[in-house]
Amino acid sequence: MGVEIRVEGLTKSFGRQTIWQDVSLTVPAGEISVLLGPSGTGKSVFLKSLVGLLKPDRGHIWIGDRDLPRLPESKLYETRKLFGVLFQDGALFGSMNLYDNVAFPLREHTKKSESQVRQIVMEKLELVGLVGAERKLPGEISGGMKKRAGLARALVLDPEILLVDEPDSGLDPVRTALLNQTMVDLNAEIGATFLIVTHDINTARTVPDNIGLLFLRELVMFGPREMLLSSEEPVVRQFLNARTVGPIGMSEEKDVSELEAEAALGRDPGRLPPIPPQLMTSDGRIRPGQHAPGAWCAAHGVTPPAGSFVDDLGRDWVEEWPRYVASMAPGAAAAADGGFAGDPRPGPSAPGAGR
């Protein structure tokens, strides 16, 4: 099971430049969370701070009951073993084949025999669909395969927390979708806490249980997926709509005159797009961190954007969800009307399909 990450009043600067300040959030144990934000807002710096590679100016990072910035070196080293990290480019050693890349952490940090190492490495390569490619060098494989190899290496020490930095970087939409599916399946399989930094709006809208947004050196919000995807904050609407209208500019923040000109012309970041059904696991199981579609909105009296939670075949998953849950219960019989008869796994009409 994953470990909760609790951040309190975190501030980081380089010289006179403040990267972000007074950031507070809780990444729930075992759930998938995404951190969004315009380029240059310090998302990668945030990940490096969480793993102890950078020390914040002030604030706390609680990993379970350990306050990371205040740990002695020996305790920090032990706490880092709870983490696995997938870097933007995979960060593979170019002179090593995939097998040796994945085996590297085991050989460096454990005393396992080579037979034990082989068993673990092949298990992780199978998890990410790379069995048969283990003898290839990084220069002989595609960008998507490099990402999956980096993911296998991040998993090899069985981390309780997985940090993923820009998994979509350099990948086409199809490979990004395949990697998203892999991460959702892995979360269901290993139960680790996932924190993903991304610019990909489709990933942010369909994959996580929780979403946060960094902007102007602050955390605009962090919480359940539906909270951010239904927010009327101008910066949220602009980012989700990929519009030029709104507070985000080429230098991160637009000046007052630009915003006043947009307001005078009656321009705004646009309406929020519908909230899509969340991406399901390949075998249709319901992850512990996954909640009923529309549940957060209903509990907080929020009306979601029109068309929310409707899949590509027009099925409303606020209505379908109770039947789907019932169909997935052990020994459950399919409904007489055939809603999920025979094979309850997600197909084209299931939550997240084709998105």
UniProtKB/TrEMBL annotation:
The UniProt keywords, alphabetically, are: ATP-binding, Nucleotide-binding, Transport
Q: Name one Pfam family in it.
A: ABC_tran
Annotated region (Disordered), positions in chain: 332-355
- SUPFAM superfamilies per UniProt: P-loop containing nucleoside triphosphate hydrolases (SSF52540)
ABC transporter domain segment(s): 5-241
Checking SMART domains in the record gives: AAA
Could you tell me one molecular function GO term of this UniProt entry?
A: ATP binding
- Name of the protein in question: ATP-binding cassette domain-containing protein
The opening ranks of the lineage are: Bacteria, Bacillati, Actinomycetota, Actinomycetes, Streptosporangiales
